[in-house]
Specification:
The chain is α+β, with helices and mostly antiparallel strands. Helix content is 30%, strand content 26%. It is built from 14 helices and 23 strands. The protein has helices at 35-44, 61-72, 99-104, 112-119, 138-146, 177-187, 203-214, 246-259, 274-283, 327-335, 355-360, 391-403, 414-417, 423-428; strands spanning 15-20, 25-30, 51-55, 76-81, 84-88, 121-125, 150-153, 157-161, 169-171, 193-197, 218-222, 226-230, 238-241, 260-268, 286-289, 298-303, 314-315, 339-344, 364-369, 372-377, 385-387, 407-411, 434-438. The strands form six sheets. Strands 21-22-1-23 form a four-stranded mixed β-sheet. The chain has a four-stranded mixed β-sheet with strand order 2-14-16-15, with helices on one face. α1 runs parallel beside α2. The longest helix has 14 residues, at 246-259. The chain starts with 14 loop residues before the first strand and ends with a strand. The model is unreliable at 1-12 and 129-135 (pLDDT under 50).
Length: 439
């Protein structure tokens, strides 16, 4: 079967990570706030013309870019503690929106709903972001059109306007997380009841609902992927702590399973990670979970297993299924498990873009098509010069480099910084040997 992904020479830009493989890890590590929850909360702050305080905010590039975008709208936003942001959007103005910043990251699409709600019209260029394949915005447009918006898609931008949005019943054609979030943000201040059917209910969607409800919204999560919103006239000041990032937990858990004698991962929400924990147990990873603290977070202790890991099949599905972002690191775990694992991501055709680099490092893998890969293990990995194509692929290859024999060099490593706070430094504190070079 043919490899459908990138092949050719590597052209390094910006950040390069060099990893000396084969080290054993020990110690404790805390995961920061959920990146995919932080970005919609920053966008949603535009709905609150009062003070917003966010705690446990990850200091990552995507968050910094969202902050810069808000600042171009004359939003007052400052770091008031190490991982705390204080925001006031009273004077927000969209006439000087930075189009280059919008183009640089996918999460800028989250401004569609709140900007339409507050300013009644918005023009945005096509958002950029990670290489994950075709991710059209049609579901966003369908949701906003069902609220009464007019959508005009042009070659380089989209224009959305509505003199007055109306509460309505929205039927989403797919379980789109960001489209669900945009629909919620567009509807929260509308008079009457809005019902979203086919809504995504991922942890970051639930966090957006919790945040808005803390600010005075009336949003209920119902069975069968249904969200009901009773509109309110105004939202008030709010302080909110962001839960730990489940995608980082998945990556650290895989790393712990492969390279640690014993590590303790703090700040894990078990209800956000049930399927990942289930698959870890199926594979044979040895871990224990502490009692939850006041934030409903636990500490997960992973210790070296004396038994061989077992192959497992994984299919990425909408929550509460296995998360698409978590399957990338599990491909590395599959290379060290006995038997053949089938990993299937029906959501994104480029989610497996890192697999050719795993093959280059020694993995026995067959790319069946853009959505499926079969990996047979266990096979030793050997360090190579490789490239990070997206956030999750980058972290996955960093894990591979740590367990590989010899030296691994990862080009375009700045992509990793978009989703993980100082990951190289934090892993070095556990015993990894990762150096960073900027160019």
């Amino acid at each position: 079967m043919t490899n459908v992904f990138f092949s050719g020479s590597i052209d390094c830009m910006n950040t390069e990570f060099t990893i000396q493989g084969g080290t054993r890890l020990n110690g404790e590590i805390s995961i920061p706030g959920n990146k995919n929850a932080t970005t919609p909360l920053l966008a949603a702050s535009l709905l609150i013309q009062d003070t917003v305080v966010l705690d446990n905010v990850p200091r990552i590039a995507d968050v910094q870019n969202m902050i810069r975008l808000l600042q171009t709208m004359h939003v007052k936003i400052d770091w008031t503690a190490e991982n705390q942001l204080t925001i006031n959007t009273t004077d927000a103005d969209i006439t000087q929106l930075d189009e280059d910043l919008v183009k640089s990251m996918r999460s800028s699409v989250l401004f569609l709903g709140p900007l339409l709600s507050r300013f009644h019209s918005v023009t945005l260029p096509e958002p950029g972001g990670c290489t994950l394949g075709n991710r059209p915005l049609g579901t966003h447009y369908v949701a906003l059109q069902q609220l009464g918006a007019a959508v005009n898609v042009k070659k380089t931008c989209v224009e959305i306007s509505a003199k007055k949005l109306k509460a309505s019943e929205i039927i989403l054609p797919e379980f789109s997380v960001t489209a669900t979030e945009n629909a919620i943000m567009a509807a929260v201040l509308l008079s009457g009841k809005t019902i979203i059917k086919g809504a995504a209910i991922e942890p970051h969607v639930q966090e957006l609902i919790s945040f808005l409800n803390d600010a005075g919204a009336k949003i209920e999560l119902k069975p069968q992927h249904r969200i009901e919103i009773t509109g309110v006239k105004k939202l008030h000041s709010v302080s909110h702590r962001i839960a730990g990032d489940p995608n980082e937990f998945a990556a650290l858990a895989v790393l712990g399973a492969l390279a640690a004698d014993k590590i303790v991962i703090h700040g894990v929400r078990p209800d956000h990670n049930e399927m990942v924990m289930l698959k870890l147990a199926d594979i044979g990873v040895n871990f224990t979970v502490s009692q939850p603290n006041k934030n409903n977070e636990v500490s997960v202790t992973i210790t070296k297993s004396s038994k061989k890991y077992k192959a497992v099949d994984i299919q990425a599905l909408p929550f509460p299924g296995f998360p698409t972002d978590a399957q990338s690191p599990f491909t590395v775990l599959a290379t060290q498990a006995e038997g053949t694992s089938l990993i299937h991501d029906p959501l994104y055709e480029s989610r497996l873009i890192h697999v050719p680099d795993l093959i280059k490092m020694g993995a026995e893998a067959t790319v069946c098509d853009p959505h499926r890969v079969m990996i047979t293990g266990p096979t030793p990995l050997v360090g190579q010069n490789i490239k990070s194509f997206n956030i999750r692929a980058g972290a996955t290859l960093m894990i591979a480099g740590i367990i590989a024999k010899g030296e691994t060099v990862i080009c375009d490593g700045d992509i990793i910084d978009r989703g993980y706070q100082e990951l190289d430094q934090r892993l070095n504190a556990l015993g990894a040997k990762i150096s960073r070079e900027e160019s």
